[in-house]
Amino acid sequence: MQLELRGITKRFGSFTANDQISLKVEPGQIHSLLGENGAGKSTLMNVLFGLLRPDEGEILIDDVATPITDSGEAVRRGIGMVHQHFMLVPVFSVTENVVLGFEPTKSLNRVDYKRATEDIRRLSHQFNLDVDPDAIVENLPVGLQQRVEILKALSHDAELLILDEPTAVLTPQEIDSLMEIMRSLAAAGKSILFITHKLKEVKAVADVITVIRQGRVVGTAEPSASESELASMMVGREVKLTVEKTPYDPGNEVLEVRDLVVLDDRGLVAVNGVTLDVRAGEVLALAGVQGNGQTEFVEALVGMRPVESGSITLKGRDITNLTPREALDAGLGHIPEDRQRDGLVLSMSVADNLVLNTPRRAPFARHGTRNLTAVNENAERLVREFDIRTTSIREPASSLSGGNQQKVIVARELSRSIEFLVASQPTRGLDVGSIEYVHRQIIEHRNRGNGALIVSSELDEVVALGDRIAVMYEGRISGVVDPSASRESIGLLMAGHTTEASSV
Amino acid sequence: MSLIDAKTAPRAIAPMKNRRTRVIAIIMGLIGVFTIFAFGLGSESRAHSSLTFNPINLVNAPWRVGSLTVVTRWTDVVLGVVMVAIAAETYLRHPRRGVMARFGSVAVLFLFALLFWAARTPGPSPTSSVNITAILVGSSAAAMVLIFGSLSGVMCERSGVVNIAIEGQFIGGAFLGSMIASTTHDFFFAAIAGMVAGGVIGLVLAFLSLRYRSDQIIVGVVLVTMLSSLSSYLNLQVFTPFPNFNTGILAPNLPIPLLSKIPVLGPVFFNQSGFFYVMIILVAVVSFALFKTRYGLHVRAVGEHPRAAATVGINVIRVRYINVVLGGAIAGLGGVAFMATQGQFQVGYTSGYGYIALAALIFGRWRPSGAVVASIIFGLSVYLSYNLVTYNVPISLYILQMFPYLITIAVVAGLIGRVRAPAADGQPYLRD
Amino acid sequence: MSETSSARASLWVRYTSSSPLVVTFFALVLGLLFGAFVIITTTPSVLDAWRAIFHGWNGIPHALNLTFDNVGAAYRSMFTGSIVDPQGLWHSISTGKGWTNTLTPISETLTYATPLVIASIGVGIAFQTGLFNIGANGQAVIGGIAGAVVGSMLHMPEILHLPVTLLAGIAGGMICGAVPGVLKAYTGAHEVIVTLMFNYVTYAFLLFMVLSTPFQQPGQQNDIGRTMDHSAQLAPLFGTRSGLRVSYGVFVAVAVVIFASWLLNRSSLGFDFRVTGANPSAARASGINARTVIVVVFLISGGLAGLAGVVQVASTTHYVDGGFLIGSAGIGFTAITVALLGRNRPIGIVWAALLFAALGVGGRNMQATTGIPLDLATVIQSAIVLFVATPVLVKEIFRLRAAKTTTVQLATTGWGS
Fold first, then answer.
1. Burial class (CB in 10 A: 0-12, 13-18, 19+), A415
2. For A313, which DSSP code?
3. If exposure means fewest CB atoms within 10 Å of the residue's CB, which of A459, C83, C111, C146 is most exposed?
């Protein structure tokens, strides 16, 4: 199938998310759409998939203008989408998920599960996508869930597949395997639109690259283009991918974790005997594919999740199983993974958010009554120091951009006198400028002689920030390496291949 | 390496879930111990309880079952021991499934132990007796109304809308049902009218919560307030000056040939009003529709993950509208059925059954079959709370009347963490 | 994007389109229209007049007249019964007599509003924390019983008796509120179901109390409790001889409003409440103990409902009976709608409570003078709140400019949490 977008424009109020975007995908081609977070990639895909209506422009399928009014229409036209956040019903079986919306039926409107299962078997055999049709989706690992998404799209006879940031949740090896699948699908004549902000993947798999920035197409490139070329196209200026650091000179152990065991929400073991140390003046980067226990590990550190066994010590003081309040008071700073869920109260003012976890501390309150003057002075100062772009400290946090919201959290945590910083996915979803800013703040914290633990599933970030890199797999530390270690070796650790040599 | 190998390493099952199971087991054990000591050993050593099974109203019954007289003390001790045994089994084996079934059976055993104790006569020769058939028939009326209500809840909540307004739909159905039944003397028209009333209330709930994304619980609660005050207003404004509109008639029993003659089961299941049979058919239809049909798959997808449903072309809002209106109609029909067992409409006589039905829905894990079982237990407790005073019970009627509500609270508190609501239940759906 | 649009929006547009007050005003209009519709469709004479127009167009003026007469009479009697009767006022001003009659409506409205403000603030504090206290009526019933028991069965010096009575009411409401709070915090039982069930439990308890010996009014067979000592009553503000019932309870309500304003706007505890209500996950991450907050909020909310119950008893009947706060007109139920109308803010709640008290008191006068049942007032109240809870609908009906929607901020989270 040949797909062409002509002059697609999509506005939200006065903000133009897509501005006159045109591109063309040929049959059997892997077309990569490269752009940084917030460049308008997801908006464009939602337009293409019928989830949003464009304000201007048209979509042509095989040279025929085809308005796509809703996602059902998109599917009927042969467009399949693998969403970044899987569109799968967790409690349904693979079969139920794949046939949803396109069920074969028998009498009385009953779903013909037998036929559906056979269809799935056939399809997974044809495209080499092995998965058990009767498994319940929530019990499958993420990589397999993604296969179900792909199968779902193929079962609707998709001729064009949109893959929206598909590698974010995968190990490097799983990514390789996905690339194989993409190539074989293209060889079978399917067109693929591959959306990402990761340069290496684009270079590895794309036939054609379209780069977008701030809602506009800024150019096309060949896969042979260098990474720095692609990066500067994507960001619009020279990007320094490395962070300036003072020489690595670690002090004493600040944080000591011993044999930590933590359960997840379902009561399964998520952290399975983790032992690690972080020293003063050191950033320990915790790498690993999302969902390998990092979230639960961090939550246990900051007191948000009970520790089943093992111990956590901060500067010699046992902080195992403290309440979040006690953990904060003990000197832990926390930049949570999901900033809008755990880090901010979006409906409250910037000023209130800047004292969110110290509202009772002097000078912000006395005898249970808040001192709003002190709260506001604090906010004015931090907005200036941390360059938070807001019209007023009284504006709700929801009015800030993602980058500025993260700055509010960073400012709040680093302005307290903390002994140790725990930052989870500190730059997820941010634009490059904000990423650089947050990285600089973390490194300055380290340069002042403090310890930090940075959890990230972005390999680039882990390598840029970490003085040492610990890799987490299946709730265990599969290895600790130097940032100069090869990507392949880190990738193997992320896939669970423990190295004998590594020790903590 | 292949994707399949990833993350297949076995993970230990943690004790988290079992903690709750253990707590439930301990509660069941305490109920059993209480039964042994209060009802068993607490009753006079020579006291007897007599059970009869012959329906009261069936004068020319083709069958008679002899009455059963048991020694109260030891019967209740045995029942208590059985409860303790179930509790012990649950505690030690902490099964992953069927904990609630065990809890339900302990509840039923407890109710019977209570009955034996209440019906005891001190001497060796029994003078009063407990008519099991009458109790089951009486409870079935309350259970029927609760089943209608919880089925309504299943319809709405499986599609992701919380219907707190079931109580209001009962009121609306009972009010309009009584009016139509009184004027036409035809329960068919009354049933239609009740369904329309419930459906319209459902439509208002759907309209405000789907189109305008108002908070579903607030809208539901305020709708109940409005319906109860509106019914009170209309009762004075219409029914008082025109009593002919609210003479109230009871639905006649329609015995099914042969089947109705089966001892005990016959009167309970096969000698009921048309509403009862409709209810049974409805349970079957809703179960079938939800779990076998294409439509049901769409409904469940919408209730679990509306965005996923939308991406494959399912119209989330439409599915929810349909289900909330149908659910409202079912609850409205429940209101008519209630009226048909109670007679003329009175203000406030649904006394919170709509809310108990919600609890039955939760207890029944959002499944029609589970809701039926829960409704039977609640129905039994509602019936007994009104009728235990006729027996040998030294407790005020008003204290007894607290029990159905207290049991509901206990059940909700004990079980809610164990059951899983549809993931999108109560969440407004935003189309980007 | 919102920066530029809000910067461009002139003050005028802001205040006509997005002000909650405007939406509230139009919701009030819609509620009254709905009430008028209900009156018209249920009054036989009006319906007959409209039916007559099928026989000839000349029936229309008559039908219209009758409609306006009926609706007008109803709403006029509501106004004169709750605010002031203009004729009586003129009579009093010109002759200097009959002031008691003239002031009675407003005094009654204030009497009714006093416990309503207290209970509604309790409900509003819970709402602001994201908790639904639908059981305020039951808590008020228990508070009323506790106060009546202490006020009638314990005897102590005047200076102590009233405070102890009020404290007993608070304690009763707190105990009743603690149950759903603790169950929610420690088992996750949804507070809506638990508080609703508790309403029925407390009714049964009320009947039990007023029909059993120690508390039943001596020499009575009916469902009526003992009368409180004079020392435990809230005395009329203008003396017993004034004939006006408005009591010192007004000062209790004012104190509650001041306390609640401080609590929600200025205290650290209230900050915790608001954070928990707006974002429970962030509350947890920032060190707020959700369980403590839930229990404390339910204690405060229940305590205030209990206080409302005892103020109601101590300032009006001085005894509880089987009909105490029964039915949809119970202050605990009205409190839910008042809190929503007042957007859970203390000052907003004061105005909303005065409005709903006027509707309720006026409804009684309407029933007495026109025969239209009092329950119409509750119907209108719930209609108003349905519209307030759906601001977008109100804006669409009146074609108000769509701007920021300030809706009642609550997040339903299903049954699990």
1. middle
2. E
3. C83
Strand, helix or coil for residue A195: strand
Residue of chain B whose alpha carbon sits nearest to that of A42: B432
Q: How far apart are the C-alpha atoms of C356 and C366, rounded to whole Å?
A: 15
Its pTM stands at 0.89
Tell me the C-alpha distance between A270 and A262, whole Å: 6
> Under an 8 A CB cutoff, do B409 and C372 touch?
no
For chain B positions 278-337, those within 8 Å of chain C (CB to CB) are none
The separation between CA C289 and the C-alpha centre of its own chain, rounded to angstroms, equals 30
Q: Which chain A residues are Cβ-neighbours of C4 within 8 angstroms?
A: 14
Find chain B residues with C-beta within 8 A of C372's C-beta.
237
Distance from CA of A237 to the nearest CA of C (A): 25
Site of tokens 């308008």:
A40
Residue B430 in contact with partner chain A when CB distance is under 8 A:
no
Per-residue pLDDT 10s for chain C (417 aa) are: 343 344 444 444 444 445 678 888 999 999 999 999 999 998 888 888 888 888 878 888 888 999 999 999 999 999 999 999 999 999 999 998 888 889 999 999 999 999 999 999 999 999 999 999 999 999 999 999 999 999 999 999 989 999 999 999 999 999 999 999 999 888 888 888 899 889 999 999 999 999 988 899 888 888 999 999 999 999 999 888 888 999 999 999 999 999 999 999 999 999 999 999 999 889 999 999 989 999 999 999 999 999 999 999 999 999 999 889 886 568 999 999 999 999 899 999 999 999 999 999 999 999 999 999 999 999 999 999 999 888 888 888 887 765 444 444 444 445 543
- The verdict on a CB contact (< 8 Å) between A81 and B311 is yes
Are the C-beta atoms of residues C375 and B238 closer than 8 Å to each other? no
| Tokens 């204690």, residue located | C299
Question: How close B101 comes to chain A (CA, Å)?
Answer: 22
Going by C-alpha positions, the residue among C305, C314, C297 that lies closest to residue C250 is C314
Q: Which residues contact C402 (CB under 8 A, 6 or more apart)?
A: C17, C392, C395
State both tokens at C241. 């001889």
- ipTM, interface predicted TM-score of the complex: 0.88
Q: Which letter does DSSP use for residue C350 in this model?
A: H
Nearest CA in chain B to A290: B7
Taking the C-alpha atoms of residue A112 and residue A211, their distance in angstroms, rounded to an integer, is 44
Decide if C150 contacts C164 (C-beta within 8 A). yes
C-alpha closest to that of B141 among B343, B297, B310: B343
Question: Which residue, C283, C137, C384, is CA-closest to A341?
Answer: C283
The C-alpha atoms of residue C306 and residue C311 are separated, in whole angstroms, by 9
Beta bridge partners of A262: A271, A307
Chain B positions touching A177 (Cβ under 8 A) are 1-3
Distance to chain A for B15, nearest Cα, Å: 7
Q: Which of C3, C268, C287 sits opposite A365 (nearest CB)?
A: C268
Closest-CA distance of chain C to residue B55, Å = 31
How many angstroms separate the CA atoms of C189 and C367, rounded? 41
Residues 309-368 of C with CB under 8 A from B: 327-329, 333, 336-337, 340
Q: Do C289 and A372 touch (CB under 8 A)?
A: no
Closest to A457 in 3D by CA, of A142, A71, A55, A134: A142
Residue whose C-alpha is closest to residue A113's, from A121, B312, B283, A156: A121
Rounded to whole angstroms, the Cα distance separating A256 from A254 reads 7
Contact list, B312 vs chain A (CB under 8 Å): 71-72, 75, 87, 100-102, 152, 156
Structure tokens at A239: 């990007």
Burial profile B230-255: b = 16 or more Cβ within 10 angstroms, e = fewer: bbbbbbbbbbeeeeebbebbebeeee
- Non-local (6+) Cβ contacts of C351 within 8 A are C342
